[in-house]
Amino acid sequence: MASQVGVVSELWRFPVKSMGGERLNLTAITSEGVVGDRAYALIDEATGHVVSAKNVRHFGSILNCTAAFIDPPKAGQTLPPVRITLPGGEIVTNEGGHAQNALSDLFGRKVRLAVAAPADFTIDQYHPDVEGVDPAGRQNVTVQQKLGAAFFAQAGAPSPVPATTFFDLFPMTVITTSTLRRLAQLRPDSRFDSRRFRMNVIVDTTAVGFVENDWLGRGLAIGSGTTLQVAMLDPRCVMTTQAQGDLPQDIEIIRTLVEHNSQAMIGEARFACAGVYAVIGKAGTIRLGDVVTLD
Predict the structure, then answer these.
(1) How far apart are CA 38 and CA 72, in angstroms?
(2) Could you point out which of 18, 50, 126, 202 has its C-alpha 20 to 30 Å from the C-alpha of 60?
(3) pLDDT digit string (tens) for 103-112?
(4) What are the E-state strand segments in the chain?
């Protein structure tokens, strides 16, 4: 029997991977998630890798860039241009190459704005000097990491996302206020703001603890028609600790997750988790205030 778990309190779309996103009142959901989500990404011309804030040495400041579509994107139509606000307040668009020139100057590395992921979708990911973040035990080191369809190809598994998309693993992400409250109780000096976790849907809940841990393999119904299937807990990384906007850099964010919500996911390997990944069961529209039920 389905049970109500809460209501949608925040909706987010991130037009450019790793940049700050758009807070929405409603959004269309297709088989590929929120329309326009992670539609663009930067490519590092020197390596061919997709730019990510997980590469803190070269691209950590990308979190202080924000991106928004000039016009709302529509399913099945050509993407509208994107407007990017740089850390100093300058606004550029991807029309005429202005954005990538300004971003290349910002990072001191030549980058280009792309609308399709390379076949060998790879990022450079920094594992912080915190025991337990990386199940392989790597600390204070940057490694190459495949994502998206390339990750699943390497694992010999079917991909839940199309080969050209910039999703890390799955098309939708969900977190509850129960999880955020629990983290804040565990480490009251840290700010567990939802922006640190870059989720599409934040569900306002009254339950206690890391409630999403019990959602694996279950269905979520949101509003009058949209359904999601919870596929995997969301393992967290150094991005949650980085400064963005008025949020300070804080390594205790990830340390708290390691200490209090480390979950076995691949064999005996344990990952510090918060929230869940999901695939789309039925497309529709999600609005703020929509009721969320769990089957």
Answers:
(1) 14
(2) 202
(3) 999 999 999 9
(4) 3-13, 22-23, 26-30, 33-34, 41-44, 66-69, 82-85, 91-93, 111-114, 122-127, 141-146, 172-176, 201-204, 219-222, 226-235, 262-266, 269-282, 284-287, 291-294
Taking the C-alpha atoms of residue 229 and residue 277, their distance in angstroms, rounded to an integer, is 9
What is the pairing mode between strands 219-222 and 291-294? antiparallel
Distances (CA, A) of 159 to 17, 117, 146, 149, 212: 19, 14, 13, 5, 23
Whether the pTM exceeds 0.70: the reply is: yes
Q: Which two tokens stand for residue 245?
A: 């906007």
Give the pLDDT band (50/70/90) at residue 222: very high
Q: What pLDDT does residue 36 have?
A: 97
Split at pLDDT 50, 70, 90, the class of 44 is: very high
Torsion of CA 282, 288, 291, 295, to 10 degrees: 40
C-alpha–C-alpha distance, residues 214 and 197, integer Å:
19
Q: Between β-strands 122-127 and 82-85, what pairing exists: parallel, antiparallel or unpaired?
A: unpaired
Residue 204: the pLDDT is 98
